[in-house]
Amino acid sequence: MRLLAFASFLTTFFFTVDPAYVRQLDEWHEKRVASLKREDGWLNLAGLFWLKEGDNTAGSVSDNSIVFPSGAAHTGVFHLENGIVSFTPATGTSVTTDGVALSGKTEIFTSEKKPKTLQQGSLKWFIIKRGDRYGIRLRDLESENLKQFHGIERFPVAERYRVKARFEKPTEAKTIRITDIIGLVSDQPLAGTLVFELDGKTYRLDATGEGKLFVVFGDKTNGRESYGAGRFLYADQPGPDGTTVLDFNQAINPPCAFTPYATCPLPPVQNKLAVRIPAGEKNYGNH
After folding, report:
1. Is residue 70 within 8 Å of 140, Cβ to Cβ?
2. Banded pLDDT at 5 (limits 50, 70, 90)
């Protein structure tokens, strides 16, 4: 009886979680899931096509240089020249931007302006730039991936993975080198380093971001329990005492866990933690 009572005490002491905190996390997670399902979310991505200089024909049949998964046989021609992308719809094909049909060649991307979003039926697309490459990011508002999405499994909520972190701001401007999943490398401004303790050991994570602090991190759950290429975590800027909170229960999968058409950053080597963090989102899908 004493052994059972002691076991019950340990369970209560170590594993009871504040119900208000659980409700708060559940509400946060509902908003997170809703953001994935929005029209500008990650679940409806249907293609990422890199452009070559000059003309790039696009449509759903194989004689195009860019083959869309659905839509008109011949949608139109993308023209890339000196960092400027224009689009000409194919004859007899209706392509719109902001609800207005294009009547001829239209500039849709320059470095100085927000890219135009074009639409044909359930397909929408716009141009992205990664390094010196320009690509078409295609969405399908009737995507099967979106229709088949039924949520994200999470680790059980554990308050021990909500930790206070000391924020070390660099004394001079520094950058951290970030490689993304397609191999592009960029130097991002280092906002600072978050220093925290877990089970008596000290860990450090470099963060970027001017508003919310943004951390791309890896841990020992990656590959089996969580997404193999790491996860994302956001934190508030430090308060007057120089600290903030890292809540790993809010660790999320990168877009690449949901679609093969994203270009996600990978954790820099210094952000790969030599410890399991069984908190936040578990792995999703096979991307």
Report:
1. yes
2. very low
